[in-house]
Amino acid sequence: MPLVTTTEAGVPIQGPSATLIYDDWYPALRTDRLHQGKLATAMLLGIPLVVGRRDDGRVFAMRDSCPHRGIPLSYGWFDGNRVTCRYHGWEFEPCSGRCELIPSLSSHDHLDATKIYASAIPCEERDGHAWVYVPGPGSGKRAPGIELRPVPELVKFGPRYRTAFLTADLPCNVDHGIIGLMDPAHGPFVHQAWWWRSRASIREKTKKFEPIAEGFRMSAHAPSANSAPYKLLGVYGQPVETTIDFVLPNRRTEIIRAGDKWFSSLTTVTPVTASTCRIDVIAAWNVFYWVPFLTPIAKFFGAKFVRQDQETMIQQAEGLRHNPSLMLIDDADKPAKWYFALKQARLDETGKHPMDGQVELHWRS
Ligand code: FES
Ligand SMILES: [Fe+2]
């Protein structure tokens, strides 16, 4: 049940577009939107999708387009096993996309319907997201046996935990969404609140970063002592350690551990189109497990936090419409520079990493 769905935020403003990273997993929608015998739609990287769950529980995604005349398959019917196009009734098995029936064929036809495929796209369920492996434009049916990257999953440290989920549409392209996510300097201005931190609490920070595969890690450290939620965690009397990873194409993982208590979150910024994106946050924790109403309280504060980012990016998108030239400064914008370099390395398939070892960054926030 998303809290900050604001389609109104995503629609009217269109800024410059970003280059997109294909052939990777992106969250398409929450699987609680998939109802028996019903089809749902989603948009990823400008590709319209039809998504559903078969009677055997498997989730599927196909390009929302009938291979016959291109009408969206989502206008058709779904009986829990086959998707039927509403135009001429072709029937498709949705996990493979294979056409199983063309009702118009007569005994005089020799066409083998099962040689025809709608474009089925790999789709897996994790942490309540339907993750879709978005193929590059023009890539045909995937050759069998080709290994996909592993499906992203939220890290959990035990069987008992609570979870929360948040989403917000952002009217800017994925690059701005991602660098906004990793930008340390906006906190005291965008996220001013008594329970978080105020502008007056700005002070100098030093953080260590290290390269990891296709990303970077803010090394384990004691979290900012000037933020109230982290102070709260301290009641367990154990040292608190935080690690934040960013990994291509769009994933930020934050883990906080204090003894056997933990909090874990996975935040993704997903291109909806080349010029708009969506932020999704999933979190799990076992801290304060017994505190009643903690989940709604956490959701309330999380939603407020995401809403603050969203409102700022709506304003930013207004400015970006006019294609201004922008700048990235040291050191607060260094993570953004690494992101752009990592992305370029993926697009060029060079495998080059912009960092050659541990780096210390300094900024005030
Ligand atoms: S357009 Fe889908 S069956 Fe003809
Ligand atoms: Fe933020």
Question: What features would you describe in this structure?
Answer:
The chain is of the alpha+beta class. It is built from 6 helices and 19 strands. It has an 8-stranded antiparallel β-sheet. A 4-stranded antiparallel β-sheet has the order 2-3-4-9, with no helix packed on it. Helix 2 (174-182) packs across helix 6. It is globular, with a radius of gyration of 23 Å. 31% of the residues are buried. Residues 1-13 have low confidence and may be disordered. It binds FE2/S2 (inorganic) cluster (FES) and fe (ii) ion (FE2). Fe (ii) ion binds next to loops.
Main attributes?
365 residues; alpha+beta; eight-stranded antiparallel sheet; four-stranded antiparallel sheet; 6 helices; 19 strands; 18% helix; disordered N terminus; binds FE2/S2 (inorganic) cluster; binds fe (ii) ion
